[in-house]
């Protein structure tokens, strides 16, 4: 184990800044909607603030727990098993908008798929720590490493939530790549996924409608392409400096879920190019510092953990921003730290706590 040093201040500061920006933008994007639903413009903000406070406490607590304690088989397989059971249990609860993504107890709701990402990262780091040098053995190493990802991704697709399933596979692929997986296996996986994706996308009307809207939103501007066009209008009207905080127009019942999936569009409209570039720059710094931690830690388990957690944050940010900028079909993936959503924010902050602890063990 490397000598303990101070926590990575860049990672810590960037995380706090992203959470702060998220709280500000959640309030701005949701105030009108919250006034209608709860009778107060602070409804969504107060909930997000509570989750942010709990998440930051969890981050600080986990930051002071040696990450090596998570190496224990009892921790790894219990976490993976509980995640799998929760993904099955979610189908026992009443659906919401024809999906089974939430476990709800009164006012408390939780999205089990958010647990899948750290659970897979922890499993891969544990499994590959002593086997990465045999990563070319697809039967005894690569297949057992990928099996939990395939299983949990299938459960998430069943919810249905194809976007999160794709994000999970991308995160796992990042860890496997750092472990030395030959890129031809990634090619085989991509080819093998073409037929399932055909049935999951082309043969599912509402998903295919999203793809068509992405390819040509102006073909049906009042229907399939409406949300894509409204997102582009929000981004383009912001200019360099934006319309000003709380002054955005597209969030007023034009953008779908302006406080969640399309919060970056509200950010671009109200804070302009400089504000939206600042958000991207913060995620770029997070990526750089996360990679730096992974490269500087000598412990293989810590390296894979750092890689996975960094990929978890950056992959989701890339997907979300790409959707807002009409560079990718809509996927329903939140912008880490910024989008409204308690379970996502809490789990992401707790995971960053692990990354910050690893940063203390680098050379």
Could you list some keywords that capture this structure?
about 375 residues; about 65% helix
Poorly predicted regions are: none
Mean pLDDT: 92
Total domains: 1
How much β-strand is present in the residues?
A: under 5%
Measured as a percent range, the helix fraction is: 55-70%
Gap from first CA to last CA: 9 Å
Find the count of extended strands (DSSP E, 2+ residues): 2
SSE series:
HHHEEHHHHHHHHH
Shape: globular
**What would you report as the Rg, rounded to the nearest angstrom?**
20 Å
Strand order of the largest sheet: 1-2
The main sheet comes to: 2 strands, antiparallel
Total helices: the number is: 12
* Oligomeric state of the chains in view: single chain
Q: Helix/strand-derived class?
A: mainly alpha
């Amino acid at each position: 184990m490397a000598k303990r040093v101070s926590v990575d201040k860049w990672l810590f500061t960037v995380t706090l800044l992203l959470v702060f920006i998220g709280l500000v933008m959640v309030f701005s994007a949701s105030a009108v909607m919250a006034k209608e639903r709860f009778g107060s413009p602070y409804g969504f903000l107060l909930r997000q603030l509570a989750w942010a406070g709990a998440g930051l406490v969890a981050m600080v607590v986990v930051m002071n727990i040696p990450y090596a304690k998570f190496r224990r088989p009892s921790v790894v397989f219990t976490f993976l098993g509980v995640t799998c059971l929760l993904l099955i249990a979610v189908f026992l609860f009443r659906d919401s908008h024809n999906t089974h993504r939430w476990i709800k107890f009164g006012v408390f709701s939780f999205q089990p798929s958010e647990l899948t990402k750290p659970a897979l990262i922890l499993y891969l780091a544990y499994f590959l720590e002593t086997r990465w040098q045999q990563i070319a053995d697809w039967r005894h190493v690569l297949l057992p490493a990928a099996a939990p990802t395939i299983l949990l991704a299938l459960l998430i697709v069943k919810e249905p939530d194809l976007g999160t399933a794709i994000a999970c596979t991308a995160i796992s692929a990042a860890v496997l790549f750092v472990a030395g997986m030959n890129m031809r296996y990634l090619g085989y996986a991509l080819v093998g996924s073409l037929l399932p994706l055909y049935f999951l996308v082309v043969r599912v009307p509402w998903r295919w409608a999203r793809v068509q809207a992405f390819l040509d939103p102006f073909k049906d501007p009042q229907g399939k392409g409406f949300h894509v066009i409204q997102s582009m209008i929000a981004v383009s009207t912001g200019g360099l400096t934006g319309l000003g905080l709380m002054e955005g127009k597209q969030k007023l019942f034009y953008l779908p879920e302006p406080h969640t999936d399309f919060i970056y569009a509200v950010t671009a409209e109200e804070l302009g190019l400089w504000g939206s570039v600042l958000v991207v720059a913060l995620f770029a710094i997070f990526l750089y510092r996360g990679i730096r931690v992974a490269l500087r830690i000598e412990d293989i388990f810590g390296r894979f953990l750092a890689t996975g957690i960094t990929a978890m944050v950056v992959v989701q940010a890339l997907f979300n921003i790409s959707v807002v900028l009409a560079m990718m079909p809509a996927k329903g993936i939140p912008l880490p730290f910024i989008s409204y959503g308690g379970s996502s924010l809490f789990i992401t902050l707790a995971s960053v706590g692990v990354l910050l602890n690893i940063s203390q063990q680098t050379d």
